[in-house]
Every structure is written in C-alpha cells, then in structure tokens.
Specification:
Elements (H helix, E strand, L loop, with lengths): L2 E7 L10 E4 L2 E5 L4 E5 L4 E4 L8 E4 L4 E4 L5 E4 L3 E5 L3 E6 L4 E5 L2 E6 L2 E5 L4 E3 L7 E5 L6 E7 L6 H9 L8 H21 L3 H20 L8 E7 L3 E8 L1 H4 L13 E2 L3 E4 L2 H6 L5 E8 L18 E4 L3 E5 L12 E6 L9 E7 L4 E2 L3 E6 L3 E6 L4 E8 L9 H25 L9 H22 L1 H4 L3 H34 L6 H6 L2 H22 L19 H31 L4 H26 L8 H12 L1 H11 L2 H14 L2
Antiparallel strand pairs: 1-16, 2-3, 3-4, 5-6, 6-7, 8-9, 9-10, 10-15, 11-12, 12-13, 13-14, 17-18, 18-21, 19-20, 20-24, 21-23, 22-29, 23-29, 24-28, 25-26, 25-29, 27-28
Helix pairs in contact: 1-3, 2-3, 6-7, 6-14, 6-15, 7-9, 9-11, 9-12, 9-13, 12-13, 13-15
C-alpha cells in the first residue's frame, strides 16, 4: 500500500538556558509540562541551573513549590550528552571527553576536543570528532514526520494517524488543516464502502476521535486570550482560549474578548470564564461543525420505541474542553443549530448527542425553535445534532419494491413479444426494423439486469467492484436505448426526405451492420470516457450512477441532447412531409403509411424519452418515484402496442399463429 509523508515543524524538545523570566514582581518559570508563578513581593524565589539539582523553588508565606526544569543537557545513548542552546546542539561522549556544565556554559574538552557553548552559540576550537561537535539549529528545527497510508478505504487510515500523533501536543494551524483533509478523505472512502451499521459506527467514532485530537493541538497556553479558526469543505472549527490575566480580572472583560463561537450552520454559548476559574484560571473550548458526518452517524441510529422516519435537520457539531482537567460545566451550554432541510410542521424535533453507538437525548432539550433554526440546551459537552421524527405517510407505506417488481416483469414480457414480432413477422418491403429490434434488445437487457440487481441488492452491494460493473452496464444499455431511438428518428427523416426513392449511396449508409456498430459504439464511448474520467462515479447504494459531483449528467446529458436533436428532426419531418406530399403524385396508401410511421416514431420517442425527464423531479417524493418506475418499466409495453398490436397486418399474423397452435 502506498504512503505519503507530512513533515510537521514543532518547538524544540528542550528549552534554552533561560527558563525563568521576570514579569513585574512575578517570575514565570517554564518547564516541559508546567509553568511556575512566583510573586517575589510575597514569596521567596530560588533559581538554580546545576545538573541534577532542584532548579526552581517558590517558598515562604504558605507556599512551597519545587519543580525540575527541562535540563538543557541530557544523556542520550550510553555515554553521550546533548546540550542545547538557542541556536545549537553540542555532542559530548563522556567516555572520551570531559563535560563541564554550568548555568551559562557548556564545555566538552580533552583528547583533542574543545567545544564550548553559551546561551546562544557554540564553537569548536580543535578538530571535531563524531562525538565531539556542535551543530547549528533553529529553535523550531525538530520535525515530526507522519507517514500516512494513502488511498486506503478502512479505519486503518485513522488508526495510523492517531498512533502517529498520540504524543504530539501542539501543531501549527496549516498542518492541522492538512491532517483534517486526510481524516475526511478517509471518511468519504469509508462512507462509500461500508453498509454494515456497526462498521459505520466504528468509522464515525474514529473520525470524531481524530478530529478532537487534532483540534486540541491548536490550543496553546496564554495569559490573556487567543482564538484560532479555520474553514474546510468538510469541517469548520473555532478554538477560544482564556488565561489567568483575563479570568482573574473579570471587570476588564468585554464582549470582544469572549465572543460567541459560531460556524456557518451553528453557534455555541458557553460559560468559559466559569470553567477557567475551576482550572487555575485557564481554559479552552473547541467547537466544530461537520458537513458530511451524517453519512456515518446516520439519523437512523437514533433508536426510539415508535416506528418513525428520522431526518437529520442540522449538521453534526462537536464541542470539547481540550487540555482542561476539570471539564464539569458551571452552566448548561446552548447550541443554535440552523436547519439544513425543510421543517415538517407535524415532525417532532429532538436535540441529541452521540453516545458511542447511538444518538440519545439524555441531558439535552429543545429551548426554542422556528422554521430556520433550533436552540438546544445541554448539561455536558459531546457531539450533537438535531433530528426530526415524522410519521410515515400513506404513500410511504406503499411497497415500492413490489410495485417495481410487478411492473418490470410485465414490461419484460411485452418487450420480449415486441422483439419476437419484429424478428419473425412478415413486414412490407422497405420496412427497416433494425433500430426497433436493437431498441428492444437494449430495453430488455437493461430492465432484466435492473430487476435481478434489485432482487439481490443485499448480496451485491458488499461487492463494490461488482456493483460498479453492474451500474456501468446499466449506463450502457439505457444509453443504447436512446441512441437507437435517435437512429430511428434519423431513418424516418431520410425516408420522408426521399419519399419517392432512396439512392444506392443512402442504402449503403443504411446497411444493418453499419447501424449496429453506430448504435452500440456511441454508448460504449460515452461509458468508457465516464469510467476513465470518474471511475468512482459508479456503484451507488442501488448499484446505479452516483449523483455526487454531478456525475449523473454522464447519463442525463446525452439523454437531453438526443431528445433535443430528435425534437428538431421531428419538426423538420413534419415540415418536409407537408411540403412534399402537396407536390408528390403518390398513391394514397403510401401517403397514409408515411403519416402513420411518423406518428408511431414520434410516439415512441415521447414514450421512451419523456419518463426519464421525471428523474429530475423525483427527489424525496415517493409518488413521483412510483410514477417514474411505472412509466419506465412499461416502455417495451408501449412499443408493443404501437408497432405490433395496433398494426392490422401483424394482428392478422397473430391470429394465424393462434389458429395454428389452437386449431
């Protein structure tokens, strides 16, 4: 499996010599995991930098704090010390040399080695060896290389990321946003590849865990206040931090210092000052809005006792208190969630939060709602959403699968009868049934494949490659139907334009073999180009073309084009026919036959083409969906009625066959 690497610049792993700084009367000493505050107007302050001694101590008048700083010299391997200044690292192997270490001076000497470093710089005055040297670095030089799995479709992507950043506490904003892109690219692959609810839940939890870990890396210590925000296509985030100077001087607070955190589709009101007071004056809140999370944490995971239809009415949001020890809220937190779908007046809204494997309402309630947004109040922080429950309507209770099954079978029967009629009945000389035969073959193949796919959809869907192949085959067969309908219109146009005769050159063009190549080659080329450009566009939940990113237009585009061309051809045919018949000394039977042919071909185009236009208006309407299924499944039936049953000569031959079978 291929991989790619993200290089993340971090702060140096050890600090320079000066770990303590004086601010007014207060010394602030910084170590690896702490900051020590000591007011010298009240307490005694001791500072020592000698190796293995207590370095910082604040004592007297009820205070006695002792901590060890990040020593600027540490032992690596078995015998090599690495001493770090602001701009250098000095390496000294004490098996070969002596290391003299004081607060402001590092000295590696003896055996042809003389490297000396102070707070900022280091120089070597004699020959350098591999274990006695100085290297120049920047305080931000150390980097974390993340080798992440590329183009993987499982939770291993997110597990890999979490393992790599487990011990990382702070990252720059641009790196965090890049990693968010990695997380949600993986989540899109997971959504398209998972159908098992348990696996969706597992994937959703992984995405949430990764997101919360990443956003926590934007939190940094501050004495006043700070905020960080970013917007990506799949997620928006805001982080706000307050420090002791803001928290302990509440009288100086303004609304600008503690703003309402909001994203495009949600906002949060939280008593961050109250939480900071419970955490030594510092606290941070991270607020995120996920635009695609409902694909993993589906509204159907909201389990209720009654049989209702669940609809996600908001984006999924998440609120946490990262790097905060005491996360108990001092007051309930309020969320304002904008509705992303039209509100049903009869629906019941619930403010829910994600509890490992399901949406639940414990501790959350609806405070206010209108047609545009809903305000939720919760006693804790978590991942939240707004779900609407509605009763199934009578239309929704119709068994659409049974309707589809019955009508497709009926359509297949009549399409087969039409195909047999075109192939074996005696037709008048000059009647070309090549287009109609192949139209019926394409319809029969498309509807039969569609019927079998829907009957075994639960077995086929887990096989993603098979599902994609089936959707590509359906794309090909349905497009072939329209191409043959177009060829039929072209043949009719040529027939009308040359009503009295067809030249030998035109007869060569109308050769059956040539027509068959054209009829299937056009559809094959369109499908081939679609596969080449967007291979992931095939294999929806119903094993059809996916509608994401407008890929459905790889089918609807050619359909609309053919319908437009056919309309132009029929207008031209009618104009030419009226003009030609006025001047043509033809028999009445020929004139009548041509008019009937024009009518039948026009009716065929309307019957085969127009039902697909309904596809633009189906959306969530069950009634339109059922109408679409009925009309499209009966295309073969209409062709049989128009060309076979309503043809006197064909009906006569039917009677002859019936007399032969049932004498």
């Amino acid at each position: 499996m291929s991989s790619f690497t993200i290089t993340i610049k971090q702060k140096a792993s050890v600090s320079p010599v000066y770990e303590c700084g004086l601010y007014e009367d207060t010394y602030i000493c910084t170590g690896a995991q702490y900051q020590l505050y000591c007011n010298t107007s009240v307490h005694n302050f001791w500072y020592s930098g000698y190796l293995n001694q207590i370095a910082h101590r604040c004592s007297g008048y009820g205070c006695d704090c002792t901590v060890s700083p990040r020593f600027d010299c540490e032992l690596y391997s078995n015998s090599t010390y690495i001493c770090t200044g602001v701009h250098y690292r000095m390496y000294c192997d004490i098996n070969d040399y002596e290391l003299h270490y004081t607060l402001n001076h590092h000295h590696c000497l003896r055996n042809n080695c003389d490297c000396q470093g102070d707070t900022y710089d280091c120089d070597c005055y004699q020959s350098r060896n591999s274990t006695c040297l100085c290297t120049t670095v920047s305080p931000t030089t150390p980097a974390l290389n993340l080798t992440l799995l590329k183009d993987c479709t499982g939770t291993e992507c997110l597990t890999n990321l979490l393992d790599l950043i487990e011990n990382t506490t702070e990252l720059p904003l641009n790196t965090v946003t890049d990693l968010f892109d990695v997380v949600f690219n993986a989540s899109e692959n997971l959504n398209s590849s998972l159908d098992d609810p348990k696996k969706l839940v597992q994937a959703g939890n992984q995405v949430l865990k990764s997101s919360e870990k990443l956003v926590s890396m934007l939190v940094k210590e501050t004495n006043t206040s700070d905020r960080v925000s970013f917007i990506r296509e799949t997620v928006e985030a805001q982080v706000f931090m307050v420090g002791p100077q803001v928290t302990l001087n509440k009288t100086n607070l303004t609304l600008d210092q503690i703003p309402q955190l909001n994203t495009t589709s949600a906002s949060i009101d939280i008593d961050l000052i109250g939480n900071a007071l419970n955490n030594n004056g510092s606290a941070a809140v991270a607020f995120m809005s996920y635009n695609t999370m409902e694909d993993l944490l589906k509204p159907d995971f909201f389990n209720t006792s009654d049989d209702t239809v669940k609809t996600m009415m908001s984006t999924v949001i998440s609120a946490t208190l990262p790097k905060t020890i005491n996360t108990t809220l001092t007051k309930p937190v309020n969320f304002t969630l904008k509705h992303i779908r039209e509100l049903n007046d009869s629906g019941n809204l619930s403010c829910v939060y994600w509890n490992v494997s399901e949406w639940i309402v414990d501790g959350c309630s609806v405070v206010k709602t209108n047609s545009s947004y809903t305000v939720c109040s919760c006693r804790h922080l978590s991942t939240f959403a707004l779900i609407m429950q509605t009763r199934p309507s009578e239309v929704n209770q119709l068994d659409t699968d049974m309707v589809n099954l019955v009508f497709v079978i009926v359509g297949l029967v009549f399409t087969s009868l039409a195909l047999l009629t075109f192939a074996f009945c005696r037709w008048k000389p000059g009647v070309n049934n090549v287009a109609r035969i192949n139209l019926c073959i394409s319809l029969l193949s498309a509807h039969l494949l569609f019927l079998l796919t829907q009957q075994f959809i639960n077995l086929i869907k887990p096989q993603r490659e098979l599902c994609a192949v089936i959707s590509g085959a359906l794309h090909f067969f349905f497009l072939s139907c329209f191409v043959w309908m177009f060829i039929e219109a072209v043949l009719l146009f040529i027939c009308v334009k040359n009503l009295s005769q067809i030249s030998s050159k035109q007869r060569a063009v109308l050769n059956s073999g040539f027509l068959i190549v054209i009829g299937y080659a056009i559809a094959f080329v369109i499908v081939g180009v679609s596969v080449g450009l967007v291979p992931e566009g095939y294999g929806s939940e119903k094993c059809w073309i996916k509608q994401e990113n407008g890929f459905i237009w790889s089918f609807l585009g050619p359909v609309c084009f053919i319908l437009a061309i056919n309309t132009i051809l029929f207008v031209s045919i009618i104009i030419i026919l009226n003009s030609t018949l006025k001047n043509l000394k033809a028999e009445v039977s020929q004139t009548k036959q041509t008019k009937i042919l024009v009518f039948k071909t026009l009716a065929q185009s309307v019957i085969v083409g127009c039902p697909w236009i309904l596809g633009f208006f189906v959306n969530d309407s069950k009634m339109m969906e059922i109408l679409f299924l009925i009309l499209n499944s009966q295309q073969g039936t209409f062709i049989f009625l128009i060309y076979c049953f309503l043809n006197d000569e064909v009906r006569q031959q039917y009677l002859e066959w019936m007399r032969a079978v049932f004498p």
